[in-house]
Amino acid sequence: MPLPQTGAPGPELKSPREPRKSQTLPTNTWKSNSMKEQSMHHEDSVKPSLGMLKRTLFRTSLRTSTHKPKEDPGLFRRGSRFLFRSLRRALDEGLTAGHPQGPVVPEKPSRVTDGSSRQAATGMEAEDLEPQAESKSVADLITERQLVKAFEQLRYLETQLVADKTSRTFTQDPTAYARRAMDLCLHYDGMAAEIGAIVREALSSQGVDRDALAELAQVVHLEEEAHQTSQAEGDFLSTPRHWRQHWEDAVRLSARERVQQAGAKVIPGAAEGASDLAQLLAELGGVVRHDLHKVRLEMQPAYEATDLPVWETYLRAFHSAVAQRLQELARDARGCEQLYVLLDWAANVYGSPNFLGAPDLALPTEPLPPLLEPALWARLESDYTSFLETKITSCFDSILQLEQNRWEANEDREVLQGLYHAPLSIDVHMLVAEHVKAAGAISAELETTTLQICARALCLFVPRFEKAFLASKAVSEWYLGAYINACVELRTSLLARFPGTIKELEKPLVAATNSFQKHLLQIAQQDMQPLFKVLYTKTWLTQDTLRPLMDKVVDFAHHLEHVTPSLAQETLQEVHRFVVREYLGQVLRPRERFSGLDRVNGSHKMNLDAQAISNTFQGLGSEAKWLDQAILSVAEVLGETYKDDIRRHLETLIQSYPDIRREHILAILALRRLGRRRNQNLLQHTQDLLRAAHAIRPPSHRVLFEEIEVPTSVDVLITCI
């Protein structure tokens, strides 16, 4: 930074640290025009001084704006505050000593490196002065960034000025003190500005000027040694200038500028989506990573001679700058994708131990503050989950639409691992797993919230999907089996993977499974129902009317082979129970009544049918062997020639099927036609057996006769009478 000079460069003081032949002062240390100044009029002397001061400040600001980035505007104001206190104090001393009233400003502001000074002003003898014609001015040294030499000269002149002030040299000429103090102030401020420029250029430039950084570090240390304690109130000279703090401020400003410049060409918005924001954050991470590597590998070695905490200061500066940038981006983030990109970058990219890409980069001893304030983080998560809820609902709508398109297109049916397969289960699994995994990468709390959102959306989707499917024309054994498999898979896998978290899914999935299973059974029942009408008829006695029914059973069982085994077995047993129940219902509600030989033949045919039904279902894998005895017991009652053994057959029937009722016994006896007294005895005996059976054991879950409706007929009434 070019600093104020008056005229061409003249002789300069050597640094007190440089070797010299004697302890004499230079002959041209200060140039004094006191005789000329005392003879000038007050008004004439003010204008040149103010003009020179303006030119000095202008030249300083000009170099600041053209040579390096924008400087802290408070530098000169802070220095001037102390300077004018000292100036006022000096003027007060001059007035009390008889100096004329009113400010007397010199014709020219003196240079720190002015060519000459009177012996009265310096208090030194002529023989003690040493010519410095070849030395550079302090401003030139600062411009060339020879900060140590510049500081040594300034410190020497400051010490001399303090000594002159203490000896009351300026009693008759306080403006000379003010002029020299102003020069010191401007040069110290210029050095501070140069420190800031060096710090900022170290990151913004391609290479690193290690000599300039070493000069910076050394001059900060020298200034702290020279100015250890604050002076009296109002005394500007020899006061601490806090260049260490100024260096830290410059580091923070430099880091903030670098972070703000990263991704400056990318302006993320709602219309652009998350890709632009991701690009911006990627560039930001690259800049931070590159700059911190540069600090560690190139800049820190230049500071080794001092105790400046280089790495910790830069790390905290960049952390603070990144936090500020993320807060700005968070205010403009819109939509689920942008919010997730922001949260994910903060938690998983920047928060990763491998973010800097070098394991030897040490962290500061104290933990860094959170990148985003807890309140802001909570707000971002809340906004993200709000958008996520809408998005997941929309995703389930898309899944439903995809399935409807498959129904309409009648796509080829898939069999996966031997089971009917629909993409429904995979789509739901991918949807839930994707969002839960993404949320879990950010925080456990967000993962739990996302699970709850998915569970609520799925609980609403399942009954909506069930209703849409059952109302469509695609209902068939294949689709019903595929969706039964999908519900079972969702129920087992999701609940196993996320136990206790989405337990509310149990109820809608079980309800949908039962509904699909019920409709699957209805298809089978509708196909088989007409075939029962020919049973227990004259035609039935002479023809194999059971075979078509068993063929339907076998065909239906082929579909069950591609259904989840547990539900396939349950469905097969239901079909088995349906066949036995409808067979008995047709027998107990006969269209024709048999007597004599026809009744005996009918009993024999029932035995054959019972065996055929039992063998068929056993071959298909049905485990409902408890159904085998029902048709046989009724057939034995009808065909028993020794009437006393009918009691035993009825006892077996009641013990095997406790859900049988009195009206069923009446219907069986009406088919047998035993006579009033025997019927009354058997009815009384079976009634006692039914009461005893219900008292001993609770009603069984096995239901057969309870679902068989037996209307009251004339024969039944006659049997009761």
Quick summary:
With 721 residues, the chain is an all-alpha fold. The protein is built from 26 helices and two strands.
Write up this protein.
- The protein folds into four domains: about 210 residues, no CATH class; about 100 residues; about 140 residues, Tetracycline Repressor, domain 2 (Orthogonal Bundle), CATH 1.10.357; about 180 residues, Tetracycline Repressor, domain 2, CATH 1.10.357.
- Helices cover about 65% and strands about 0% of the residues.
- The chain has 26 helices and two strands.
- Helix 16 packs antiparallel against helix 17 and helix 19 runs parallel beside helix 21.
Helix proportion range: 55-70%
- What series of H and E elements makes up the topology? HHHHHHHHHHHHHEEHHHHHHHHHHHHH
Global outline: rod-shaped
Largest sheet: 2 strands, antiparallel
Structural class: mainly alpha
Task: Note the total helix count.
Answer: 26
Mean pLDDT reading: 78
Quaternary organization: single chain
Number of domains: 4
**Which regions have little confidence, pLDDT < 50, spanning 5+ residues?**
1-134
How many strands appear in the DSSP assignment?
2
| Order of strands in the sheet with most strands | 1-2
Beta content: under 5%
Determine the N-to-C terminus distance: 128 Å
Radius of gyration: 51 Å
